[in-house]
Amino acid sequence: MDIVVTAAVEQLIKTALEEDIGPGDITTMSTIAPEATATGFFRAKRDGVVAGLILLEKLFAFVDPSVRVRCLARDGDAVTKGQVVAEARGPTRSLLLGERTALNFIQRLSGTATAARRYVDAVKDFPCKIIDTRKTTPGFRTLEKYAVRMGGGTNHRFGLYDAALIKDNHIAAAGSIAAAVRNVRGQSPFMAKVEVECTNLDQVKEAVAAGADVVMLDNMNIEQMAEAVRVVARRAAVEASGGINMDTVRDVARTGVDFISVGALTHSAPAVDFNMKIQPAGANKTVKGFKG
């Protein structure tokens, strides 16, 4: 499983907890005895692909180091409605303090993973990859791109620093695609790939002639994409981008492109609903095998 709990992610978890808990949980501290203990069961409320379980142990450790977490599914697993994906055992107050924040992370990331899986499954008959974009929630990029991978998708660049993508404004400022590519080649590490966004076939030809590693077909129709793939003739990788959805993704894949980028994976994927229900200690036995 990919490790994503970096220092930045840890800070994000802390910030989210502080945002929710503030100076204290009025309701929990008023209704739950400090000595009470319980087990919280995290359940899927609909089918989907789960992601974010990797964060639970760290999250509850920030709330209360005595809470013990056991995951019953792995990030990237397909889960069904009603399935228990994780348990957290410890002081009841601590479980309730972390409940909402934990669910917020799991639901959001599972939504992205589920959307990615749907797109990946839709094009499984074609030799192309579904990739994400930089249209991510500020501060959540590492996690959302992790969720895309858990859904079977592939990450595009993480930021402005790890690959060059020449877009319309760069071309306008440089004067031409050839000039923009030449300038980038002269400034970036030789291992960095250079991609050029093209809106028509003339730009595709210019990008290939300039030595672009990847040609992005921006908001082209199916016929234009197919012709662009023929023009490129494997001299560069080809990415399709712009307004692609579940109704069109198979037709796009059929044109022969190598990559299909879908911004909706991160900017508008619907959350997968989960809940956490507690079972007070001594009420009934929990799922067998929990060792704390």
CATH architectural type of the largest domain = Alpha-Beta Barrel
User: Oligomeric state of the chains?
Assistant: single chain
The proportion of residues in beta strands is: 15-25%
CATH topology assignment of the largest domain:
TIM Barrel
- The radius of gyration over CA amounts to 23 Å
Distance between the termini: 22 Å
Q: What low-confidence regions span 5 or more consecutive residues with pLDDT below 50?
A: 285-292
CATH superfamily of the largest domain: Aldolase class I
- Provide the number of structural domains: 2
Question: What's this, in brief?
Answer:
The chain has 292 residues and is an alpha/beta fold. It contains 11 helices and 12 strands. It has 2 domains: 7-114 and 270-280, Aldehyde Oxidoreductase, domain 3 (Alpha-Beta Complex); 120-267, Aldolase class I (TIM Barrel).
